[in-house]
């Protein structure tokens, strides 16, 4: 399988006969230019478009324009997108998932797990591999600006969600998970707790905007947990998983 980093939390996972697009926000060169428009929409086979929640940096109504160029598209969205972005939705042929719901066909199986912000996270079985896209599941402790009690509550909410995931998904071939420096000190704590709980063969950081050095700082932590760290240096970068 090939993985292409687009931007923020956006990735494309490519197999020979189909592809999955996670949390499209912008293409690799900008909103309407890059790998998705220049390559992905021309590929044969179905394209699955997954969006984990309604936030504008994880869901874009531009994904509905893709169908003009590629009719074989299947949309799989968190249920909160139906509630919060309904005016943009062509409601036919969209699978809306809440936590615990499953979508499955001959190419892809997706189960929605919890989030500590909005929507869901996605566990997917695709191209013979186990993938996890966290969406906004993270330890959003904001400890530099929260009260100690608020930070403790955020961490406990995250650890509870992580334990539920671990019980069903103890290992994955690829995890796409936030390493967000906006959290301030100890910004990759959630990612560290994740790789300690879930065995990851490969780990791809996300949700770091253009702070590549901050994302790279997690590399030794991932390696210590036995994960191959995918060092993202630029938008549009390709990896073989």
First-to-last CA distance: 5 Å
Question: Percent range for helical residues?
Answer: 10-25%
Shape: globular
The CATH class: Alpha Beta
CATH topology: Metallo-beta-lactamase, Chain A
Total number of beta strands: 14
* SSE pattern: EEEHEEHEEEEEHEHEHHEE
Spatial extent as radius of gyration: 17 Å
Beta-strand content: 25-35%
CATH level-4 homologous superfamily: Ribonuclease Z/Hydroxyacylglutathione hydrolase-like
Question: Which key terms come to mind for this protein?
Answer:
single chain, 241 residues, alpha/beta, Metallo-beta-lactamase, Chain A, seven-stranded mixed beta sheet
Q: Can you walk through the features of this model?
A:
21% of the residues lie in helices and 29% in strands. The protein contains 6 helices and 14 strands. A hairpin with a 2-residue loop joins strand 9 and strand 10. Helix 3 packs parallel to helix 4. The longest helix is centred in the middle third of the chain and has 21 residues. The mean pLDDT is 96.
Summarize the structure.
The protein is an alpha/beta fold. It has one domain: Metallo-beta-lactamase, Chain A, CATH 3.60.15.
Write the layout of secondary structure elements.
Elements: E1 2-7, E2 10-14, E3 19-22, H1 35-38, E4 47-51, E5 73-78, H2 79-84, E6 94-97, E7 102-104, E8 108-113, E9 121-126, E10 129-133, H3 148-168, E11 171-178, H4 189-197, E12 199-206, H5 212-216, H6 219-224, E13 228-229, E14 238-240
Parallel strand pairs: 3-4, 4-5, 5-6, 10-11, 11-12, 12-13
Antiparallel strand pairs: 1-2, 1-14, 2-3, 7-8, 8-9, 9-10
Helix pairs in contact: 3-4
């Amino acid at each position: 399988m090939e993985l292409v980093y687009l931007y923020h939390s956006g990735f494309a996972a490519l197999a020979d006969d189909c592809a999955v697009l996670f949390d499209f926000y912008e293409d690799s060169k900008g909103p309407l230019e890059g790998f998705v428009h220049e390559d992905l929409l021309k590929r044969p086979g179905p394209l699955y478009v997954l969006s984990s929640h309604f936030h504008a940096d994880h869901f874009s109504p531009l994904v509905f324009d893709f169908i003009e160029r590629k009719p074989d598209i299947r949309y799989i969205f968190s249920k909160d997108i139906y509630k919060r972005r309904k005016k943009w939705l062509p409601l036919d042929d969209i699978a809306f998932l809440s936590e615990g719901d499953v979508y499955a066909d001959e190419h892809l199986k997706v189960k929605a797990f919890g989030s500590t912000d909005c929507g869901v996270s996605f566990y997917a079985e695709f191209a013979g591999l186990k993938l996890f896209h966290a969406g906004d599941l993270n330890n959003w402790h904001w400890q530099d600006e929260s009260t100690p009690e608020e930070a403790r509550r955020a961490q406990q909410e995250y650890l509870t969600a992580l334990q539920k995931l671990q019980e069903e998904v103890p290992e994955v071939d690829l995890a796409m998970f936030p390493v967000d420096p906006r959290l301030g000190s100890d910004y990759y704590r959630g990612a560290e707790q994740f790789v300690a709980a879930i065995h990851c063969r490969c780990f791809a950081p996300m949700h770091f905007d253009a702070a590549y050095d901050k994302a790279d700082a997690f590399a030794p932590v991932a390696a210590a947990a036995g994960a191959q760290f995918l060092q993202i240096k630029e938008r549009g970068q390709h990896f073989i998983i």
